[in-house]
Specification:
Chain lengths: 112, 113
């Protein structure tokens, strides 16, 4: 099993550009999450999904959008990138909402 | 502010010593807690979890203690090894319809050979 796979691993964006961070999991988990991690900080939840077709905002959703058309995929869309979105982004999935979440390896994004 | 926080941002121990990493939480409704280990450049990795109906849970070389009275969580690592050097995060989930795992800032554990 590959677990949770994120692409790309690194990306540099110019201010105002848009991009989609991809996340896919092969564990048939219902729940998926997007977090961002700023240097020296913990993880802040951006969006989460409890199943295909269902998404909800986390703590820091502004500037991001998500969709969940399949169980496996949970892409994160950045519209009009800003320097404040420079961060490491982690996707995670879990079987239930209050069970262990498995994380991907992260996407390091720099907005210049 | 953060509902989950850590008392010590950094911890340095000698190889072979036991390590204790502490975590305070403020949400008394939290019923599930996880400790994660994050090595440099990698995603968080599950270490151990505990539910609020337990006080203690043991894994391989790790023990998690939960004190609901003072809303305190600790991770004990026995015979700490250089490979244990990483940032450790505690996270809580308040259960019910709240599926959000809330993370603290983390503690950097450095193991000196």
């Amino acid at each position: 099993n590959a677990g949770v796979t994120q692409t790309p691993k690194f990306r540099i964006l110019k201010i105002g550009q848009s991009m989609t961070l991809q996340c896919t999991q092969d564990m048939n988990h219902n729940y998926m999450y997007w977090y961002r991690q700023d240097p020296g900080m913990g993880l802040k939840l951006i969006y989460y999904s409890v199943g295909a077709g269902i998404t909800d905002k986390g703590e820091v959703p502004n500037g991001y959008n998500v969709s969940r058309s399949t169980t496996e995929d949970f892409p994160l869309r950045l519209e009009l990138a800003a320097p404040s979105q420079t961060s490491v982004y982690f996707c995670a999935s879990s079987y239930f909402g209050n069970t262990e979440a498995f994380f991907g390896q992260g996407t390091r994004l720099t907005v210049v | 502010g953060e509902s989950v926080g850590l008392h010590l941002p950094t911890l340095s121990v000698q190889e072979g010593d036991n390590s204790i990493i502490n975590c305070a939480y403020s949400n008394s409704a939290s019923d599930y807690f996880i400790w994660y280990k994050q090595e440099s450049g990698k995603g968080p990795q599950f270490i151990i979890d505990i539910r609020s109906n337990m006080d203690k849970r043991q894994g391989q070389r790790v023990t998690v203690l939960l004190n609901k009275t003072v809303k305190h969580l600790s991770l004990q690592i026995a015979a700490t090894q250089p490979g244990d050097s990483a940032v450790y995060f505690c996270a809580e989930n308040s259960g019910g319809s709240n599926y959000k795992l809330t993370f603290g800032k983390g503690t950097l554990l450095t193991v000196n050979p």
